[in-house]
Amino acid sequence: MEPQHAQYDLLISGGSVLDGESDEPVDADVGIVDDRIAAIGDLAQARASRRIEARGLRVAPGFVDIHTHSDISVAFHQPMLSMISQGVTTQVVGNCSLSLGLARDTDDFAFERRWLGAHGARIVWDDMEGHLAHVDGIGVATNYVMLAGQGTIRKRVMGMADRPASKAEVEAMKRELVLALEQGAWGLSTGLEYTPSGYANVSELVALSAVMRRFGGIYATHLRNEGDLLLEAVTEALEVGEQAGVPVQLSHHKAEGRQNWGKVRETIRLVNAARERGVDVQMDQYPYTAYMTNLGVQILPQWALAGDNDAILERLTAPASRDRILEEMLAAHPDWADDSPGGPWGRVEIAVARKDRTLQGRTVADIAGARRLRAAQAALDLIVSERNFVAALNHAIGEDDVAFVMRQPLTMVGSDAVGTSPAGQTGEDRVHPRCYGTFPRVLGRYVREEGVVTEAAAIRKMTSLPSRRLGLQGRGRIAVEAFADVVVYDPSEVRDAATYENPHQTAQGICAVIVNGRVVWEGGAWTGALPGRVLRRPL
User: Fold this and answer.
1) Which CATH class is domain 63-289+396-432?
2) Are strands 510-515 and 525-526 parallel, antiparallel or unpaired?
């Protein structure tokens, strides 16, 4: 039967299609049968079990979020509401060296157990295969792609040991990585600002990364430093990729701190020079001028973060070590002596503080003023009182830098977010607005309002570019026989609604989201479907 007279399970009619590769949209209907796109064109005469009217709307591939941390939340929030509501149909998890899929239910993984336990969930697996099978069993709304976290692998072999790995330990880590890759992981991630990932030296990173040559995986790296030592950290990442002969992905690329704004022009020069030497290096970013992570990671010297949580808290309460920490903090960052609301502490905003929710939304400068303390002292007190489970926003990224990185042809969009929801306990955390707004913000602010990139270029950065980077077959394109991962949005209305003050707000202009042929988001709500699939890298 001709396509225009065929029977489809779902027909998206009257829209204009941006297929993920082309520079201009094309008016066309899209017919879906089961989990695949069966036809594209004039299907006005076709029959369909269900129709979505898309006249005046854009039809694009579902967004592939190359950098998320939703392996942290999938065990207790399968709908991934913040993700599907912004058009994400595939998530790459296990980033920044932390892979829940490789965590074990032992004391070495106290952080992971505590995170899940707060939501009534547990680690009920022992390896990557067990985790992926668990996700398969409970269901998830988006497709699920896992990286193997180098920090988690190091904990499996060495615990939190603060030293170079021995030859035997490196070999043991390599075996762990091989098994994870054989069980479906798509690459290796590092988080070199975090422990124990940051205890690895270049030779250890090269040895692990080289394992991936026969698997075709990527090396996705949260750099060792994204501020004062950004150039040195990028150089290290490129060295790892060059020596190991593997593709390098610079995660959430940016320059932190006003004194470092503009350094991304230098890092892009380093990237381009490396590409000329044959190093396959690309990057991703989120479109915001604030980053968010654990407050201790942001401000403490590396040695003060060694060991488990109790060891960190002991250093912050013992007078001698606390004095040393403060001295080193101020020596490395003299501007941190400025306690005024306009100083650096006035840009550090408490986001998640579960023991004292009244702290959320307040800056360290404000809290210090109310307590009549120096800001640096108040920051250490916050870490202690919240038992090092406190996250902070830091409004320290330059808007010009965001736009510059976005214009680079090899920059993808990645939220660096956790799938979450406004309901229940997850809604009590003042999360980063990127959880809900990353992709609509690019299309609304940076495409429609500011013209930083074209709409077609933005769609490529969100779909076909990350799909090709990973080697995802049949994803990231609107094409016949491709998987039916589709987002329907209004190009004149799409925008982020989430703010730093009120982050749990779904985006505007996202009309429908389809994953593997099933509608997961429509009419501003989750449909109840969990059609996402665990995608294992083919061997």
Assistant:
1) alpha beta
2) unpaired
